[in-house]
């Protein structure tokens, strides 16, 4: 086989494997945002905080309370994520959102993937045009086990990527 044919075959196989990898990493339909364009993706490192609460039947159970995370871009701290849920970027822009769709994480200890609809905005900056936030690539964050005393808290480390999208 000639050198140019070998190069062509290698390129074809590489492109085929990239197309296949892209198809395998497609987001679940429940969190997809067709017709929306990504503005920014930020990586989060932090904790999911849970509170031990008494249910209606008197049994104690862990209830999600809030996220506490630092947002990173290119390895640099650029914002924070906290209860609301809120995302604040270093340019002063911020969004609050509510859950619109969920899909399971990769393993049992991963918090779910989410699609969130932006409900309010503050400031003027990169997050200002966001209409949707996707939480993807989650790792950790899920609390398992029983709780024994109402009012106690547990923090579980997690990481995720947040994709901010706009209509169109």
Give a written overview of the molecule.
This protein is mostly beta strands and about 170 residues long. It has one helix at about 5-25; strands at about 35-55, 60-75, 75-80, 85-90, 95-105, 115-120, 130-140, 155-165. Strands 1-2-3-4-5-6-7-8 form an eight-stranded antiparallel β-barrel. A hairpin with a 3-residue loop joins strand 3 and strand 4. The chain is globular and about 50 Å long. About 25% of the residues are buried. Residues about 5-25 have low confidence and may be disordered.
Descriptive terms for the model:
eight-stranded antiparallel barrel; 1 helix; mainly beta; disordered N terminus; globular; 168 residues
- Count of β-strands: 8
Q: Kindly provide the radius of gyration, computed on alpha-carbon positions and rounded to a whole number of angstroms.
A: 20 Å
Strand order of the largest sheet: 1-2-3-4-5-6-7-8
Rounded average pLDDT = 88
Helix-strand pattern, N to C?
Answer: HEEEEEEEE
Multimeric organization: single chain
Extract low-pLDDT stretches.
3-24
Total of DSSP H or I helical runs spanning 4+ residues: 1
Helix fraction bin = 10-25%
User: Which structural category fits the helices and strands?
Assistant: mainly beta
Head-to-tail CA distance between termini: 47 Å
Question: Mind summarizing the main beta sheet?
Answer: 8 strands, antiparallel, barrel
β-strand percent reads over 45%
């Amino acid at each position: 086989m000639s050198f140019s044919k070998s190069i062509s075959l290698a390129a074809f196989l590489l492109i085929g494997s990239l197309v296949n990898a892209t198809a395998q990493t497609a987001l679940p339909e429940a969190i997809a945002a067709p017709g929306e364009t990504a503005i920014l993706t930020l990586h989060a490192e932090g904790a999911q905080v849970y509170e031990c609460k008494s249910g209606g039947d008197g049994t104690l159970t862990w209830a999600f309370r809030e996220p506490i995370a630092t947002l990173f871009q290119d390895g640099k701290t650029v914002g924070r994520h906290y209860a609301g849920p809120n995302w604040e970027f270093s340019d002063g822009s911020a969004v609050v959102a509510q859950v619109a769709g969920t899909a399971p994480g990769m393993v049992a200890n991963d918090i779910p993937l989410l699609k969130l609809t932006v409900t309010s905005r503050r400031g003027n900056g990169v997050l200002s045009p966001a209409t949707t936030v996707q939480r993807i690539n989650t790792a950790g964050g899920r609390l398992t086990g029983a709780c024994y005393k109402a009012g106690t808290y547990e923090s579980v480390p997690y990481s995720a990527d947040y994709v901010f999208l706009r209509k169109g």
